[in-house]
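Dear colleagues,

I hope this message finds you well. In preparation for our joint manuscript, I am sending the Glycosyl transferase family protein (Tolypothrix tenuis PCC 7101) sequence together with its predicted structure, so that both groups work from identical material. I would be grateful if you could confirm receipt.
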Amino acid sequence: MSNLFRQLLKKVGSGNHTGENLTRAEAVTATKMMLLGEATPAQIGAFLIAHRIKRPTPEELAGMLDAYNELGPKLQPIAAERPVIVLGIPYDGRTRTAPISPIIALLLAAVGQPVVMHGGDRLPTKYGLPLVEIWQGLGIDWTTFPLAKTQEILEKTGIGLVYNPKHFPLNQSIWNYRDQLGKRPPLATMELIWCPYAGDVHIIPGFVHPPTEALFQETLALQNVTKYTLVKGLEGSCDLPRDRTAIIGLSSNTGVLERLHLAPRDYDFTTKNVPLETTAELLAQMQEVLAGKPTELMQTALWNGGFYLWRSGISPDMRSGIAKASELFTTGVVAAKLQELTQVVNSQEESTLKAT
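The corresponding C-alpha cells are as follows:
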C-alpha cells in the first residue's frame, strides 16, 4: 500500500464536510501513481469512484493533463498553415447515432486543415463503436503503426490517430477499473481535452452536460490553451446534432466564451439524426457519402462539414461552408483524400516489411 496515495485518497473521499480538493501538483502525483501502478488496486478503485462523486475541479483536471503530458505520447509539430485540430471524442464510442468524424477529418485534410484524433478499442462503459473500427472499415488500420509511422502519415496527409493501446499503454491500465466500477471517472472527462500533439493546436472536445463546458474552459486556461471549440454534440462527441439546436462555445481573444446556437432548419436540414445500426451499414452509408450521393448521412456530413470549414477559417460563413463541403464531396475530392491516405499507409507498411 502507498501511504502517500492513501493521503490523497482521504482528501477526495472524506465526504462533503471534511473532504478537500487536490492541488494541481497533488493531482499530478495521484494520476501518475495510478497509471504506473504505484497505488494498490483497492486504492485506485476507491479513488476513481470517490473522485467521480466529489466532481473534479479545473485545477485537478489540469494536474491530470500534466501527468498525461509527461507520461503519454506526443506527435511532433508539422508544417501547416493552420493550427492542427485535435478532436476530443469519448473513448467508449457510439451506440445510438451514426458518427461522422472520420469523414469530416478527410474533408478538412483535403483542404489543408490537419486533424489529429485519439482513442482505442471498444471500452467501458458503453463499449460503443470506436474510431479505429470505422477507420479499419474505410481501409486504414491505425492500430498497426508505431508512433513514428503515425507521425509520417500525419506529415504527408494531414491526418493522424494516436492509438492508445499501442502508443499509450499506461492509459489502458485504468480501463479494467472503469469496467468494474461501471461508471466514468473524471479521467474520462479529462481525456476529452487531452492533446497528444506538441504543436499549435485548436482543441475541439465534445461534451454532454452543461457544467462540463465551464470546467473545460477553466482547465484549458490553466493549460494555456487559447484556441478551442466546445461542442454539445451527439453522445458527447464533436458531431453536431440535427434533432436540436447545436450549442457551441467558441474561444475568443478576450478570454470570454462566445456562445453560438446553430439550428439545422435555418440551413434547410431535416431535424433528425441518422441512427447507428450495424457497423457494416454505417460503412456502406459512409461510402455513399464519399461517392457524393444525396443520402441522410450526407446531410449530417454537410451540416458538420459546413461548420468545421467555417470554424477552421477555410470558409467565411456557415452557408458557404456547407456549399464548399457539398462541392468537395460531389467532385470526389474527399474520396480522393481517402485514396491518398490509403496509398501513404500502404507505402508505410511496405517500408516496415522491408525494414524487418
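For the figure legend, we might mention the following. Strands lie at 84-88, 115-119, 159-163, 201-205, 229-231, 246-250, 258-262. The mean pLDDT is 95.

With kind regards,
E.M.
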